[in-house]
Amino acid sequence: MDGLRDLVAACREGRAPYQSLVDRVPYANFLGIEITARGEELTFVLPQRDTNLGNPTLPALHGGAVAGFMEQAAIIFLLLEMGEPRVPKTIDFTMDYLRAGLFRDTFAECRVTRLGRRVANVHISAWQGRRAEPIAIARAHFLLSEENAEA
Amino acid sequence: MNRLDICRRFVASVRHSVELGIEVLEAGDNNVRTRMASRPELVGNPDTGVLHGGAVFALMDQAGGLANACTIFPEFEITPTIDMRVDHLRAPATGKAVICDAECYRLSQHVAFVRMTVFEEGDEQGEPLATGLATYMRMKLPGARRVVE
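Predict the joint structure of the above. Result:
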């Protein structure tokens, strides 16, 4: 956890690329997640990759890959949002699929709806062509207890 | 071709599920049992080695689609997910394969309703590590059956 705390601080201060928060998570690399930043505004990218394909008749992205991408985006977003970072553990994740995820790059942005002492509520939106036409939206709760940060 | 054959062919056609290593163990009238082996690339927390919630979500979503296929059998339809909620009841034990049971408890004309439960392998009678609830759209695409033939 100390390593992670230092890394989060380094990313915030511009001493380390945001991408280093992705690179330490094996599953995030498995999906191929990238982060782009404009100032402090983060956009998460799930690049077009064969290995994230689902339905063979369309072809469309696997809904699970898109959900995993959005969950990981929310975790990194929360880490950077908290004054004192604690490892967010997913309590629940609710996904609404609005459009087929086509075989192309997918983007996501996050909004912390409520950051409490122990629980955070995060909204995540994912799009491909236009931000205003999301392919999926999700809502998740994360547990932030100190106890878990030490685990 | 029985339900299990259809489910296995279906999973084999879904690239990301193959990448995740999802296997179909059993297929019933409206339910399936699936398995995902523990692999280093699916770890979500590098400090603890715990499986990523996203990988569990993907397994559950796939298992739900298979439960639909079992219920719709002997016909075959593509059933994209409308929505799905997962509750992570506790952290999975590290290094263990996980099992996901999915059951389509209601198939209406246009929508399939599914619930899922996830356990560690060998602990199917114990405390589940995740539960899920999802709805799927019955997309009656002509030629969908080619996927499993």
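The radius of gyration of chain A is 15 Å.
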